[in-house]
Amino acid sequence: MLKTIRCLLLWLCISSPPSQAYDLLADPFDTLSEVSATPAKNALATPCQFADSPPSPLTLLDAVERVLCHNPQTRLAWANVKAQAAAVGTGWSAYLPTLNARGTANKAAKRSTFPGHSEYSTDVSPAELEGSLNLNWVLYDFGLRAANLESARQLLNAANASQDDVLQTAFLNTAQAFYEAQAAQALLSANRESEEAAEKSFNAAEAKYTAGVGTVADKLQAQTAHAQAVSKRVQTEGDVQSTMGSLSILMGLRPDSALNITVITEEAADEALFQQAVEGLIEQAVRNHPKILAAQAQVKATQAKKEGITAAGRPTLSLTASEDYFHTNATPINNQGTSNQAVNSQRIGLQVDIPLFEGFGRHYKESEADAQVESKQAELANTEQQVALDVWKSYQALRTGAENLKASNTLIISALQSFEVAQGRYKAGVGNILELLKAQSDLASAHQQKLLAITLWQTARVKLATSLGQLGMDIIS
Question: I want to staple 154 with a disulfide (CB 3.0 to 4.6 A). Which of 51, 213, 300, 475 is the partner?
Fold first, then answer.
């Protein structure tokens, strides 16, 4: 039998090219074909290779690519997929025979003496060599291996779907952080303009007071408004640094990394997004969302696990084969020379294992499996409800954001005209400082509302795509 096994292994080695032989040893069941090459999966057209310093200016696309490759959550999800792919390989390995070899070498010393009868004394120092080779191959097991393999496959499907969900969540978090940084940067520019306007108003009020045509109250009110504008600008500078630090951390950089991101741009509301009924969007999400696909795979995995527990209580038929070799020498017989003995034995046969009684343990394992199936089915139903609610909320937020975006454009035009009129009236001496300061405050508020409307619209658009399970690079490219 040893000769047969050696010939089989030799034939496997010489019948395949070196590359194929290496792949056979590295991944004989080709389970890694279900694993993505990078943590970003198929979201990127190129591998996860970037320069140490981010590009300048940094676009949202650049930020997302770095996050998908370097974020700890995406790398954790990728590792989970690889681990589950290995579990599938373990399931396949149960269909192959197991071969075990064992060898021992012993050197012993034993001395026996008989006082007065030295002819019967012995001094034994035997050397023993023993080797065995055992093969076991399960031929039929009433579906136990198939159930375990199906469970591992479904868990791999769940891990892949979970990786998709993690990537989409990382994408959404990056987009939110990027839009917040853009908004803070734009708000800083607006607050600087407000500070300049407040300074001009203060200079005008001070000039009037110096010329004797203004009151000290007007001067003090203008000075207060200018100080408030300075305070807002300083606070916004801190907000910019905070949002930039958050974005840097997501990309795997230090929070104090110097980032130069693109400026915020106003995007027109896409009416095509509202032409599809929200009911159709919900149905689409229930069919395709990674969270739901992962939950469905979990249900199937627990069902397969239950079938495996049931099958484990049935008989198994196995092919068994073994070969044993034993050799001993230097065994004196009454101190008259030595003895050598070699024993070689071979066996082959069929073995049937029938579980008869396990202390009711299997009964309770099956009950536990039933409960786990019910639990996973409930989780699936809860996930479907949550996804449907997320789609509904995201859709409504997108509609609201589109309306606010339109309204903010009208608001800022009106506020700008009002400020210009109030400024002209005050310089002409027909307006008062309160009218000017109110128009100035309304203009600053209008700028803030427009920036907020743009950010909310952009975020709502990305959130809707995430709720549908269809967030991809095409939404920002």
Answer: 300
